[in-house]
Specification:
It is elongated, with a radius of gyration of 22 Å. It is α/β, with parallel strands linked by helices. Strand 1 and strand 2 (19-27) form a beta hairpin. The protein has two domains: 7-197, Leucine Aminopeptidase, subunit E, domain 1; 209-351. The chain has helices at residues 56-64, 68-73, 80-83, 112-131, 153-170, 184-197, 209-225, 231-245, 251-270, 277-287, 295-311, 326-351, and strands spanning 7-16, 19-27, 37-44, 77-79, 85-87, 96-103, 138-142, 176-181.
Length: 352
């Protein structure tokens, strides 16, 4: 199951009683996520915990030296009888705090009801942890049972999306769900299913001559920025470059990464990350030192709004216009370029 680190291909934020929470889709190896996970969820056949190459549990052993069967015998919550799963104690691992293992019986054909019940059991177990006041902020899970057990991919995706989004709404502690598809084909199915749930229109950057000129300016700015940043900051600009140069780059991908860029630049200028992005931009507009031209914060607000449109769960809305257009994407890319060039100048002058 060896593969490069998983990359984000889709994301939304959901407004809840406890603030905005995120649901994210990645493609790649779930055991190579670059961030910390409170609970990593895996599935196995109850009759075989052998870490076979090409499976999630095989990759866990290969990349983290985690042998799942050892943790089953010393689990903190053994819920196999009522809910087909168990939850480990806290483990000594820099990327994973706990494991939740769902035992899925392999059948020649599993019914939709059986798949629904198995996935529901995961979120019942999460509710049990929350009732015990065990804080789980980030969970990551693969497309459970769609590998060697050959569960129906579309049904698994349907119920993973449904229960994940509902649990984010009602959970006090959980604020991030990360769903990871190993194969590109399954990642694409998952991506399309999520976009249908959100009523997202598939809109890509237009292929016009002057758009190529803007992209050329963008690539020049990225090359200059690479001289100004350290390794901890590089991922944002790597993702930004990958999305912009992708000929199938979609509107919500551009919007989400543009908002992240604005957050990064605003926090770099202000030297803090407190408050909502709107107020950070307004702080820059009113009190920045050295003085920043009035139109730069306006570019930032444009990208912030595009990002909110892309990242937040809004569904079908009654407005004019109802969705972004190609011309809107052109403006978005133009603002990104202007903001990158501004930040290069700002960084150089600040250093001087």
């Amino acid at each position: 199951m060896t593969q490069d680190n998983a990359i984000q291909i889709n994301a939304i934020q959901i407004d809840t009683l406890w603030g905005y929470k995120s649901f994210e889709i990645y493609q790649g190896d779930i055991t190579k996520l670059e961030f910390f996970v409170d609970l990593l969820i895996v599935s196995v056949s109850p009759y075989s915990y052998t870490p076979v190459e090409g499976t999630v549990i095989g990759s866990l052993f290969e990349n983290h030296n985690i042998e799942l069967e050892e943790f089953r015998e010393q689990s903190e919550f053994d819920l196999r009888n009522p809910f087909n799963c168990w939850i480990s104690k806290e483990i000594a691992n820099p990327k994973i705090r706990r494991l939740l293992c769902l035992e899925m019986h392999r059948k020649s054909r599993s019914t939709e009801h059986e798949i629904k019940d198995l996935i529901e059991n995961i979120f019942v177990a999460l509710s049990i942890l929350e009732s015990k006041e065990i804080v789980v902020k980030t969970i990551a899970l693969p497309l459970l049972g769609t590998g060697v057990m050959s569960f129906d991919v579309n049904l698994v995706i349907k119920y993973l999306l449904d229960y994940s989004l509902k649990h984010l709404q009602r959970s006090q502690y959980l604020d991030r769900v990360v769903l990871v598809a190993f194969e590109k084909e399954k990642a694409k199915i998952l991506d399309n299913a999520m976009n249908q749930v959100l009523h997202r229109v598939k809109l890509v950057l237009p292929r016009k001559e002057y758009m190529n000129k803007i992209k050329s300016e963008f690539l020049g700015a990225i090359d200059n920025i690479n001289l100004l940043i350290d390794d901890s900051q590089a991922q944002l600009f790597t993702d930004l470059k990958r999305i912009v140069i992708d000929t199938e780059c979609r509107s919500f991908e551009l919007g989400i990464i543009a908002r992240k860029l604005v957050e990064f630049i605003a926090e770099d200028i202000l030297k803090h990350n407190k408050g909502a992005l709107y107020y950070k931009i307004e702080d820059i507009r009113s009190s920045s030192n050295p003085k920043i031209a009035e139109w730069i914060p306006l570019y930032m607000h444009v990208l912030r709004v595009f990002g909110n449109e892309s990242a937040h769960e809004i569904g079908v809305v009654d407005r004019i216009p109802t969705v972004v257009s190609e011309s809107d994407l052109e403006i978005c890319l133009f603002c990104i370029c202007r903001l990158l060039n501004f930040w290069i100048d700002f960084r150089n002058k600040s250093s001087a």
